[in-house]
């Protein structure tokens, strides 16, 4: 496990081989086959270039790219993975899953800095290896990490305030990748 201290108090934990291969294989098959994958429109009405699904505690929903995603109830696979990541750092009540079907699927530069979002986000990758890049919002300093089968990346500290991250498209022939981001979302008490 590498612990990187980034500019302005960002913290990134990187463990390339967090999961043993057999366990990563089992989670990969279960999540690929048992997740309620959907493709959703993004902010400009185009479809997002990936499939998504969200799971979590009862009553948790998450606003993202202008849409509200009510969490489906936790599955035993997701609870097992959540416990493993919580043993490293964080405490989570929500998981957003992304499926990148090929090198054409991607996620653009963003920060998960919504006010209701906790500052520790645990991200597990399965399947094809893709680049996960981070960029400082003002200095534009950039670092690239390889997120492969069983890689854990935890973003913590002030990372979402000062840094953005992306999964760029690639022209290389790559297979499917599933990424899970575990988050802690504050309940919206004043929902009307
Ligand atoms: O796929 C990844 O590694 C990143 C996913 C991500 O940044 C997000 O879901 O907000
Ligand atoms: Fe993100």
Short note summarizing the structure:
The protein has one domain: Alpha-ketoglutarate-dependent dioxygenase AlkB-like (Jelly Rolls, Sandwich), CATH 2.60.120.590. It is 15% helix and 40% strand.
Can you walk me through this structure?
The chain has helices spanning 21-34, 76-86, 159-162, and strands at 2-6, 10-15, 51-56, 61-64, 67-70, 72-73, 94-100, 107-110, 121-127, 130-136, 142-147, 151-157, 163-167, 177-183. The chain is globular and about 40 Å long. It is α+β, with helices and mostly antiparallel strands. The protein contains 3 helices and 14 strands. It has one domain (2-183): Alpha-ketoglutarate-dependent dioxygenase AlkB-like (Jelly Rolls, Sandwich). An 8-stranded mixed sheet has the order 1-2-12-9-14-7-3-6. It has a 4-stranded antiparallel sheet with strand order 8-13-10-11. It has a two-stranded antiparallel sheet with strand order 4-5. Helices cover 15% and strands 40% of the residues. 34% of the residues are buried. It binds 2-oxoglutaric acid and fe (ii) ion (FE2). 2-oxoglutaric acid (AKG) binds next to strand 7, strand 9, strand 13 and strand 14. Pfam families: 2OG-FeII_Oxy_2. This is 2OG-Fe(II) oxygenase superfamily protein. InterPro entries: AlkB-like (IPR027450), AlkB-like_sf (IPR037151), ALKBH3 (IPR032854), Oxoglu/Fe-dep_dioxygenase_dom (IPR005123). One of its GO terms (molecular function) is dioxygenase activity. Residues 91-186 form the Fe2OG dioxygenase domain.
């Amino acid at each position: 496990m590498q612990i990187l201290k980034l500019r302005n108090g960002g913290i990134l934990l990187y463990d390339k081989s967090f999961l043993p291969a057999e366990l990563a294989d089992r989670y990969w098959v279960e999540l690929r086959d048992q997740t309620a994958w959907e493709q959703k429109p993004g902010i400009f009405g185009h479809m997002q270039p990936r499939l998504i699904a969200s799971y979590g505690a009862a009553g948790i929903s998450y606003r993202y790219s202008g849409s509200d995603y009510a969490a489906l109830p936790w599955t035993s696979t997701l609870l097992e993975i959540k416990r493993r990541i919580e043993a490293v750092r964080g405490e989570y009540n929500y998981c957003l899953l992304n499926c990148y079907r090929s090198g054409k699927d991607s996620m653009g530069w963003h920060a998960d800095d919504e006010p209701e979002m906790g500052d520790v986000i645990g991200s597990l990758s399965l399947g094809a290896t893709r680049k996960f890049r981070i960029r400082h919002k003002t200095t534009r300093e950039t670092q690239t990490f390889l997120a492969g089968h069983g890689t854990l990346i935890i973003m913590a500290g002030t990372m979402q305030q000062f840094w953005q991250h992306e999964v760029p498209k690639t022209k290389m022939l790559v297979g499917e990748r599933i990424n899970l981001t575990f988050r802690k979302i504050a309940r919206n008490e004043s929902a009307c």
